[in-house]
Amino acid sequence: MFVSMELLGGGIVISAIAKLLKSVYPRARIYVVGEQHRSGKLESFFKEHSWVDELIICPVRGDSTFGEWVRFYRKLRTYNLDVCILSPNHSCANSVFLYLCGMPEIVGVYLPKTWPWHEKIENKFLDRRLTTEEMGDGYRLLTFPEAYGRMFTGRKDFKLAEMVPFIRFSDTLQTGEGPRVTFHAGGPAHRRWPVERFAELGRMLIQRYGATVYIIGGEEEQDLARQIKKSIDRVVPDGKVLNCCGCSLNETMNYVAHSQLYVGNNAGTLQIAVALGTPVVGVFQERDRWFSGPDAIGTEHCVVSRASADAVPVKEVWNAIEDRWADRLCASQAGRDVVA
Q: What is the spatial distance between Cα 312 and Cα 94, in angstroms, rounded to a whole number?
């Protein structure tokens, strides 16, 4: 079996599909294809926490020669692959080359109304594609794993929670009093909510609910976390704010799983929170909301958006939290007080 993906967030979604494939085809060998600077960052995750057997590095999109791509597809032929399952955003472009290199079966999705550059491509190279029935109400990023699940199992009730990556739960995480809230301030620069607004929201959560704030992300997002923590500490020096950027992916998933709430930008870790069932407030660009927003999964998640993510006011995010999760946060706070 062969799964194609490239984006970091997509890698987390695809790992869920890999888990599904192992349940349907227990003797299958599953490969993931992606770029070194994207998928390569998930190599240890694939080895330790998912059902992927091997990562195959492909040339960099937009920065590789035609000859490099030809050599890459020739290399793929040596793996004697049986099935290629394409991630949604590559179902058109990649299927042509996979067809030319003799892939026996290519599975993907056709998105003519979703992404403009697909509109003029009538994709005849997919042997199987997700149907409207499998997709449900619409073509949304977080519904694709469920749709693939329905396709391969034939079940109509397949849910994202069944596909969550394997987590080794730990009791050794840094903890604090009050409800736990996870922040993710990273992701692509054009999708980020300003750090000063994360900091303001963090101060409000600590002052109102006595929350412990976990700031998660990669090593490269350490500086964002330091800025948020410093700004919060200046106003509420006794508040509990933990910079967890650079932790292993397993530790990161533990922090998310043990949180009462997740607040973050449009990035891959948000998909982990959704799959784990942690309520999410996503801060989005309006144009991304319809495709990537966690509210596609249900009303337990919320998206606050503007034309630009940095235009989203703190008050609107705070109101979303107060309207939906005040009781949950208060109950958690009270439970901690009783234990204390």
A: 36
Burial bucket for residue 222 (CB in 10 Å: 0-12, 13-18, 19+): middle
Query: What is the residue extent of each domain of the chain?
Result: 2-163, 180-339
Give how far Cα 75 sits from Cα of 34, 64, 67, 106, 270, Å: 14, 16, 12, 17, 34
Record the pTM. 0.79
Spatial neighbors of 26 by CB under 8 A, at least 6 apart, are none
Distance CA 117, CA 243 (A): 40
Mean pLDDT in residue range 239-265 = 92
Q: Do domains 2-163 and 180-339 have the same CATH topology?
A: yes
CATH classification of 2-163 is 3.40.50.2000, yes or no?
Answer: yes
pLDDT per position as a tens digit, 305-316 = 999 999 999 999
The closest of 88, 96, 82 to 126, measured between CA atoms, is 96
Query: Using one digit for the tens of pLDDT, what is the confidence trace for 319-329?
Result: 999 999 998 88
pLDDT-wise least confident of 5-14, 199-208, 326-335: 5-14
As assigned by CATH, the class of the 180-339 domain is: alpha beta
62 φψ region: left (φ > 0), alpha (ψ -120 to 50), beta (else): left
Question: Nearest CA to 251 among 278, 267, 277, 272?
Answer: 272
The candidate with the shortest Cα–Cα distance to 42, out of 218, 270, 173, 259, is: 218
Nearest alpha-carbon partner for 86 in 16, 23, 140, 148? 148
Per the CB < 8 A criterion, the answer to whether 31 and 52 are in contact is yes
From start to end of 118-179, where are the E strands?
128-129
> pLDDT tens across 24-50, in order?
889 999 998 888 887 787 788 788 777
Instruction: Give SS3 for 93.
Output: helix
